[in-house]
Amino acid sequence: MSDECSWLDAWLKAKKPDPPLPSGVLHLVATPIGNRDDITLRALRVLSQADIIAAEDTRRTGLLLQAFGIKKPLISCHAHNEEKQGRHILDLLKEGKSVALVSDAGMPGISDPGARVIRLLVREGIGLTVLPGPSAALSALAASGLDGEAYAFGGFFPREGKARRLWLTRFGRFHGAIVFHESPNRILATLQLLKESWGDRYCCVAREMTKRYEEFIRGSFSDVIGKLAGQDKIKGEIAVVVEGSPDQGEAADSPEEARALGEALLAGGMGVKEASRLLAKRTGKPAKAYYAMLVESQGSEAQ
Question: What domains, with CATH codes, occur in the chain?
């Protein structure tokens, strides 16, 4: 076993023995979105005790298991065989096996394979349990500076024209934050389309979260497009958070939220004057007041 999991050995020896996993139950296990140290202790216990692990990519999951010294039978369950494998998993569970279902990163069934398997088991009355863990969408929302009290998850931004129009209509009037995924090859075109469709809203592009080159780019669509266009090549996995429509619900212009957004803009490299103007445009209040507030915030952080 590698040195990486020596701490796990010590923890397992020190704690009381866990009861065996219940038979005939599917365990939905969230896996790290980048940094594998983000895996939970409960996830490691279930993966080490399950009879079988159903994985989106058995090679990728195999590397994760290897890092923690876990050896278990693996079967594939991805977008192209999910319906067939769902029936196979159902048979295994009826035989009394315990099965852990994982995707390449994050939670199975959330923009990843797994939803059809889950629906099948629900129809058949088979038990399942969920092990929460890393989430790209929630991590990006937390880092955006936007209020997460109300938010909508849009999955992957559609590639087809009709689907895009429906998506833009569906989420364009939502008053809370909108979170979605996009590929690095299409991110600039998508941000430009959103700007043209929704206006120049505040957004946060989260790239390579939890990994070595993690980056958060915050500002208006115009600001973020400009920053991304200046990069030689955009790489990595991307989650985008966009502020909700100001035309529905109460605008996010409370002093506390304005300060939080302003500080997020400054943290992203925007100047005080530019951030003040963006807040003023967003809320309709004078930029001068926001300028003074952000100067004060900078002074407080420096102390």
Answer: 3-134 (3.40.1010.10), 137-302 (3.30.950.10)
